[in-house]
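Students often ask why we bother encoding 3D structure as a string. The short answer is that it lets us treat folding as translation between two languages. Here is a chain of 97 residues written in the first language.
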Amino acid sequence: MNGVVKLTNEKRNVTRYSRKIGRMGNSLGVSLPKSLAEKLNVTQGDEIEFIENDHGEIVLKKARQGKLPDNVRPEVLEAFYDVFEEDEGILEDLRDR
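And here it is in the second language, the structure alphabet:
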């Protein structure tokens, strides 16, 4: 399936996955079933994209990732990203001054 899983409302040959939404820090999160993670070819630390097409269907796709330098740990980069995301308004205000 080339790393893309498409969930639709079509009646033929459809695989459905159901998960509860949980809290992850200040965000919401969903775990992936093992079989879906294998189809997407993702592991812990990878990113996925949620793409909505013009039919209202949501497509999950593994995001293309560049290689981090050896001295940069992914969890530290993720922590920086979380801080920037939470403080985006403050940073935009500083930029606009």
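Translate back mentally: Strands lie at 4-7, 22-24, 27-29, 48-52, 58-62. Keep this in mind for the problem set.
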